[in-house]
Amino acid sequence: MKQETNQEYLLEIKDLTTAFLFDGKPVPVTVNVSYGIKKGEILGIVGESGSGKSVTVKSVLRLLPSPPSSILNGEIYFHGQNLLTLKEKEMQKIRGNKISMIFQEPMTSLNPVYTCGNQITETIMLHQHLSKEEALKKAARMLDLVGIPAPESRLKSYPHQLSGGMRQRVMIAMALSCEPELLIADEPTTALDPTIQAQIITLIKELRDSIGLSVMYITHDLAVVAEICDRVVVMYAGMVMEIAEIRDLFHAPLHPYTQGLMQAMPRINQQSEMLYNIPGMVPHATQMPTGCRFQPRCPYATEVCSQACPELVDAGDGHMVRCFHYEKLRKERVQNG
């Protein structure tokens, strides 16, 4: 039965808390995470390592082993259906078919003992019930779609015979082979050189424009976010700190953590030899501070920040922020032009 969900979202995560076992006890690593992605949208998920980005999206596809992981509360709706209530057989019809995922390192994601053609056709035959010959033809079309030259011959290649950029394109081709509605890209360009990164980013944008693909793009790189995304979710220490349209986020970030990430971005006209870095580190899940999770590193923190955790509130025009002092930050930005 379909539940009451926000109809503008293709996928909606509501109050998701995922835990892992530490010393035999479940410890939340993400807490009450809520956001959604619209059809045809590229949604950026940003934050430092340990912020809960990948744990959240792997919870969406139920890829986390249980134990040690468990989902303590929350819902994940896809077309109004709660994915967390589905049996594994039902989930298999969605995973890799309606929702696909590409990972950070293609060399560990592709099986080294099978050709690229074998790996793509296996996915197509499993979900679309095509013959081997039909699946090979479709696999060649997918390699062509992602810009791999001589796709028929590349189907016979093993992963080690391809460059890093080519392997990542094969992963994208495999992820798109069943024509998913949603593609989850978990830092897909991190291990690639800048030229190949730019090509993969351009490819994802072109696929969104040509086939209406929705993309959740996970990264720690705000420069990539500025290039590719329509909206951004900023996560820190397992919680959503800010959600905004890309222009709003870069023009007027309202959370001190987002401001810190912006300041840490390298700029061409920057004179300083040292890049800015946010003091301190992301706390471990077993050592979370009381109150606001960012307060030990925050230049705006006051006594209330250590006593209570702020709610995620709408600061206007759908710009969501989790901070007691966001109005102060907004006034400062106005005064500073």
**Could you describe the largest sheet, including whether it forms a barrel?**
8 strands, mixed
Proportion of residues in β-strands: 15-25%
Number of strands: 12
What average pLDDT do the residues reach? 89
Overall description:
By secondary structure, this protein is α/β, with parallel strands linked by helices. The chain has helices at residues 53-60, 88-94, 106-109, 116-128, 132-145, 151-154, 164-176, 194-211, 222-228, 246-251, 256-263, 303-307, 326-335, and strands at 9-22, 25-38, 42-46, 69-78, 81-82, 99-102, 182-186, 214-219, 231-236, 239-245, 313-314, 320-321. The protein contains 13 helices and twelve strands. An eight-stranded mixed β-sheet has the order 6-7-8-3-9-10-12-11, with helices on both faces. Strand 9 and strand 10 (239-245) form a beta hairpin. Helix 5 packs across helix 7 (164-176). The mean pLDDT is 89.
